[in-house]
Amino acid sequence: MGPIGALNRELECVMGQRHNGPISFKERGPGLEAVVDVLESHLIEHHNSPETILLVKWVDDLTTAAKAAFASAGIMLPTCAAAAKPAAKVTAKSNGKKTIQGLVDEPLSNSVDTRYIDLPETDNLRASGAKTHPLLLEGTRRCYKVPEVRCIASKHCGTTWKMPRARDRIIAHLSKCTHLDEDMQERVSKFLAASSKGPKLQIPDLEPPTEMGADAEVIVVTDVLADSRTKPTEPLQSFVRQGRLNLKESGDHAVMKFIVCCGVPPTVVDSSEWKELISVLNSNYQSPSSTKLTGNLIIKEASKISEGIKEYLGKARHLTITFDGGKIRRPNSLYTIHITIPGGRTFCIYGAQ
Q1: Phi-psi bin for 17: left (phi > 0), alpha (psi -120 to 50), beta?
Q2: Residue ranges of the alpha helices (H) in 91-218?
Q3: Residue closest to 169 by CA, chosen among 133, 201, 199, 131
């Protein structure tokens, strides 16, 4: 018998068997309150063990017993709303001006969030069926009751989801969550870059100034011909299917570039006028929604560009790194990091507020 089995047996001896009905508290005080600490410590220490389901059942039964005790005494249940993220503190200086003390993003050092009870993962133990992506298992935790899934940094970011795990939404959050460690963010960025549907990123070499002047804008281009997915297959059905897939991917990429590069609000693609325009141009193409643009296509393209810039800078020499920051109108600060290569070309590699 392991520690969880021993605790389960001890609770049955003290609290009584549960097959005869709900537990009824016979006393109160520190001795009863200590049960909460004991259950919490065991659930945290053995959160990967399948036997924790025994302790989770005890949490459910004891919660029911506590509610019954309050109801029998005619006392309303206390409410506790856990704040997802503390608000910025406002302090007054001696000169009468107010200063904003915001929160500093810290790397994740402990994935335990005492507001939730984590459950062991069982999806990837199945003999058949789809397996959960490893990044989702590493970046999230299953929880008891609601919410059912939380970010491993929920102690800081307060982000939760419903089951089953929505891969695109969770990956999108993991790519932007500043409370995750650098290694996790790097692997998420590479996954998004690899799943981007657009052509491969190509950064042109720096050329001497022409008659346009030294301040001419440098444009990052992509080579459509280099995309191997445009090659059709031999059978007719496969050819038609591949043609529709290529139309969808190239069309989504073109719409995404138009929205981002022209500064158009993504909600434009949800309007009836936009859908009518697309239908007139090509009735076989269905434009992506604003949700897919902001939560999928733009994030993946940004990750692909970011990884391409890192690869390009990894081969460059004599780099100049600059840091800049300042306050904006809202009580937040904006910080950026730029890298400049010989010749004056500058890349923004990081920005946060």
Answers
A1: beta
A2: 134-139, 154-157, 167-176, 182-194
A3: 133
Structure tokens at 157: 């970011």
Q: Is 100 left (phi over 0), alpha (psi -120 to 50) or beta?
A: beta
Tokens (6 digits) for 73 = 């005494």
**Sole residue written with tokens 């859908």:** 275
Return the pLDDT at 297: 87
Beta strands in 111-267 (DSSP E): 118-119, 140-143, 149-151, 160-161, 201-202, 221-222
Burial status of residue 132 (CB atoms within 10 A of its CB: 0-12, 13-18, 19 or more):
middle
Name every residue whose Cβ is closer than 8 Å to that of residue 32 and which is 6 or more positions away in sequence: 25
53: amino acid identity, one letter: I
CA separation for the pair 139, 118 (Å, rounded): 13
Q: At what angle do helices 3-15 and 30-45 cross, to 10 degrees?
A: 160
C-alpha of 99 from chain center: 31
pLDDT at 257 over 80: yes
Residue of 298, 203, 189 whose CA lies nearest to 252: 298
* Mean pLDDT of the region 227-238: 54
Per the CB < 8 A criterion, the answer to whether 286 and 172 are in contact is no
- Predicted TM-score (pTM) of this structure: 0.53
Residue 187: helix, strand or coil by DSSP?
helix
Tokens (6 digits) for 341: 């290569």
- The reported pLDDT for the residue numbered 229 is 46
* Cβ atoms of 255 and 129 closer than 8 Å: no
What distance in Å separates the CA atoms of residue 167 and residue 187, rounded to the nearest whole number?
15
d(CA 58, CA 18): 9
Using the Cα atoms of residue 58, residue 64, residue 67 and residue 72 in order, give the sign of their dihedral. negative
pLDDT value for 123: 58
